[in-house]
Amino acid sequence: MSSAQPHQVKDIFLDGPIDPAFVGASLAKHATRTDIGAHEIFLGQVRADAIGGAAVQAIEFTAYRAMALERMTLIREEAFARWPQLTCLHVHHSLGVVKAGELCFMVFASAPHRIAAREAVAWLVDRIKAELPIFGKEVRSDRTHVWKRNS
Amino acid sequence: MDILLFGAVAEKAGASILHLEATSVDALRQALIARIPDLAHMRYAIAVDRQVVHHDRPLHGGEEIAVLPPFAGG
User: Fold this and answer.
1) CB distance B8–A128 less than 8 Å?
2) Of A16, A86, A102, A121, which is least packed with CB atoms within 10 Å of its CB?
């Protein structure tokens, strides 16, 4: 394992839900990049799962930020190594309370052609869900809560 | 050493930082369960310097240690 510092650590976290307008604005910023031919965007939305009759109203996300950002930097570098055609890659995840129906996760990849963007996003979503220390408290309509866990 | 706690583990402990002394990861696991008995029935991982450890290893006291319940990002 190299002890070299990752060359660029980007903060992926934002407070509260991801505004759909933010997604649109992110997309609009790429209009000047005319070498791009394909965007692939994954958006995670909080689902009102019913657990024993009480529906999930919101998820309150917390994270071990230092580890999450360190892992994300490595995953990002691996993605660019696997799909060198990628033009750019943007990852955002919510912290704090995100209500059912709101967005909490965005993975956005762009490339000259669709295959690299599509494959990279699918791979990134799986890696991020499995490896980033992000925790979610599902708050239910009866005011009880359950800790979410990715399978 | 300070142990960072997250999510369900922090909730059970009633704190987000615990102070414990341990000279190995296995000793740390025992000390944690002595302090947070519910941990014996929970799934969790231990991270040393922001990497999940799967085996015992010595601890010298300067490491950043965290107790991590199952991840739920996405």
Assistant:
1) no
2) A16
- Residue A67 and residue B69: Cβ atoms within 8 Å? no
Interface of B with A in 14-73 (CB under 8 A): 43, 47, 50-51, 64, 66, 68-73
Q: Tell me what ipTM this predicted complex has.
A: 0.96
pTM of the model: 0.94
Do A108 and A33 touch, CB atoms closer than 8 A? Answer: no
Residue A103 domain boundaries? 13-148
Question: Using one digit for the tens of pLDDT, what is the confidence trace for B7-42?
Answer: 999 999 999 999 999 999 999 999 999 999 999 999
Q: How far is CA B24 from CA A56, A140, B20, B58, B73, in A?
A: 40, 39, 12, 4, 29
Q: How many domains does chain B have?
A: 1
Domain assignment present for residue A143? The answer is: yes
Closest Cβ opposite residue B6 in set A59, A62, A125 = A62
Is B73 a member of any domain?
Answer: no
B18: domain CATH number?
Answer: 3.10.20.30
